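2024-03-11 09:14:02 INFO worker-7 job=invfold-0412 stage=load source=structure_tokens
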């Protein structure tokens, strides 16, 4: 039976598919680490109190990148270049999601609207990350090879999502509610389209590596398009709602260390 668990098990069991999966994950996490690090350094004076949390967010993302690279090393594998069509982070940037790298490379303070946009974009993408890691934790949280890494990253992603909720609600209370609502809606429309396109690209590459039959590829393609249709019609709402998280100050304090193997 074709299930999410069986698909990921197949990817995990094959060196080349595992190599591609970890390479894509490591690249995206490392990029997110750099972006958050630059944002932390450029936070405007009016929002300096949140700079340590942004830095913690970046440190977590960099740690995740190291973890995925460490998983590769444990198998004696090296990362491969991420196909352009599967580069989630860069495709989002081209759609205007996330602060432009050109802006982050300048040593000029960001504005308060920049911080609002950064948090609104992050709220959408961290929802996706948290859901993906929750699924992996459900199926592979006890796996002898990847379980420890999956559990740690899943916990971090939950913290990142909680942080976005808390900070956006704070900014909404400070007069940015309408702007936050607008950016969230614009962001989610772009994200669900990019996620569909990246899913199709990764599925095509995995299918080639694992020699999936045409019927299996067609079924997976249909499933990806069905998920996109659901998210476009209704599912997007879960990615733009705001509620005060159970855990407050989720990114207060230093980042936790990576597992021993990393």
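2024-03-11 09:14:09 INFO worker-7 stage=emit residues=262
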């Amino acid at each position: 039976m074709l299930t999410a668990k069986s698909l990921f098990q197949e990817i995990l069991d094959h060196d080349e598919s595992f190599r591609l999966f970890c390479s894509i994950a490591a690249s995206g996490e490392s990029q997110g680490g750099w972006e958050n690090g630059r944002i932390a350094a450029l936070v405007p004076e009016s929002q300096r109190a949140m700079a340590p949390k942004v830095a913690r967010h970046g440190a977590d993302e960099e740690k995740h990148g190291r973890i995925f690279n460490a998983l590769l090393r444990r198998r004696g594998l090296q990362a491969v270049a991420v196909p352009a069509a599967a580069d989630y982070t860069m495709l989002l940037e081209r759609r205007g999601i996330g602060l432009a790298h050109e802006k982050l490379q300048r040593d000029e303070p960001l504005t308060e609207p920049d911080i609002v946009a950064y948090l609104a974009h992050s709220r959408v993408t961290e929802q996706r990350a948290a859901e993906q890691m929750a699924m992996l934790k459900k199926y592979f949280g006890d796996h002898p090879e990847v379980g420890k890494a999956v559990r740690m990253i899943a916990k971090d992603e939950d913290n990142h999502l909680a942080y976005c909720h808390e900070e956006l609600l704070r900014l909404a209370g400070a007069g940015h509610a309408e702007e936050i609502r607008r950016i969230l809606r614009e962001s989610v429309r772009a994200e669900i389209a990019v996620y569909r396109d990246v899913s199709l690209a990764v599925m095509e590459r995995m299918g080639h590596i694992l020699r999936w039959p045409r019927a299996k590829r067609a079924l997976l393609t249909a499933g990806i398009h069905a998920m996109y249709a659901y998210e476009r019609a209704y599912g997007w709402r879960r990615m733009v709602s705001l509620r005060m998280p159970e855990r407050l100050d989720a990114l207060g304090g230093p980042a936790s260390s990576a597992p021993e193997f990393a």
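2024-03-11 09:14:09 INFO worker-7 stage=report msg="The CA atoms of residues 99 and 118 lie 6 Å apart."
2024-03-11 09:14:10 INFO worker-7 job finished
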